[in-house]
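Because showing beats explaining, we let one protein speak, sequence and backbone structure tokens together, and leave readers to judge.
___
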Amino acid sequence: MISRHETLILQAREQFDALLALVEEAKGQRIDRMENDLFGGLLSLGLTLLRQFVAQHGTGDAGPVLDTAAAPWKRLENLHARRYVSIFGELTIDRTVYGTRDQQKIQAVPLDAQLGLPDGDFSYLLQAWLQERCLDTDYAGAVQGLAAILRLHPSVRSVEHMTRQMAADVPNFQVQQPLPAAVEAAELLIATADHKGVPMVPRDRPAADRDEESDHPGVKRAACAGAVYTTARFVRTADDVLDEVRRQERAADRPPPQGKVVWAEMRQELDGEKCSGREVVLANICAELDRRDPTETQPAIVLCDGERALWTTILAMLTRPVVAILDLWHALTYLWLAAKVFHGTKPAQEKFVTARLRMLLEGKVGGVIKGLKHMGTQQALAGEKKRTLAKVVGYLERNRDHMQYDQYLRAGYPIGSGVIEGACRHVIKDRMERAGMLWTLDGASALLRLRVVHTNDHWDEYQEYRIGREQAALYGPDAPYAMAA
């Protein structure tokens, strides 16, 4: 009698011979059509070979009684089938199971541990491929793209659930990452953070009154992104920066960030307490600064926009000395607001902004503030113009201590938060703010964490990490593919 193992080998050989015949008999056919036919055949062949791989392991029968650390379990009479969806297609795995008696809870399935089966139906490889597509496109689009290639059709709901499960181990993974290689360490240690709004479903939107995490009350909730990196000094003059602003381009010889690590979080619950995404990210930033420079000998710089909540939180958390710098480009937007108060034409506005930007770069913040107040009084501003000017002056006064740009330029410090602006755009905005998208808090948090893992170039490493953690949770720390907690 031919065994199932032998039957599958024969079937695989027949399929392979059929593919050879397909090629040999298809002269004159357009090559892309041949590709399509071959790929379909290779998927079928792969599924047969995968079935054969499973058959080699038997059913996991370990005898009438299975001794475990918990208790000895009795082999139950009937095999139990399990669905497994691979990149080649779906198969059914028959397994010997152990417990007290039929119709009761199954206590042990040796074959599942031997094969390293996942918690759900979808293979780890399929999960990784599918979720990597979800990082850059909506769930429905990711499913359609997968269907076009692998001829598989998982539901959108199952893929969303998969995202939440896959992201669960990201915080643990992040804290155990090694320090960047020495070749990626430059002289200046930089920390930066910012917020970006994520459109939420009604139940997860902030309250109607302004929430500390809300960019637009009742519509969005803010995600916080943060980064730590090193960079070399870059000494410049006020004229150098003005030239860069006029040309609207970055300086060609500006040293790039080194050893960059990014975080992005939304509001969450930690140890029973609700924490804002800002608190979580800034805590990670402070820990990373201490980890990279435990002796506090490296010049450390915190670079943010003028959002008071960011400055208040991070400066309260820090236990080391830092140079706190206001992002120049945010200050520049306020100069433009003031220019529009006093001038109606673009040339006049540009001249106004350039003159005051030079003063800021030369360390004359007080002169800019005094001059704006004097102009407002002279022109007897009222209504909206008066309120706008008060907003600009208030912003400059609040952030004055962080605007010593003449000193920063001489020291070669960065004065622009382009790194975190890019991270907010890439990690948050490009995926979370597409037309018509609304997010739950859990769903947005999970996807942001996975996008951060990918941004930090840890995707493959994280897949192995979280698979090892899941294997340990499913089958115990001594399971073949388990990773210690």
About this structure: Residues 31-56 form the longest helix (26 residues). The two ends are 47 Å apart (CA to CA). The mean pLDDT is 92.
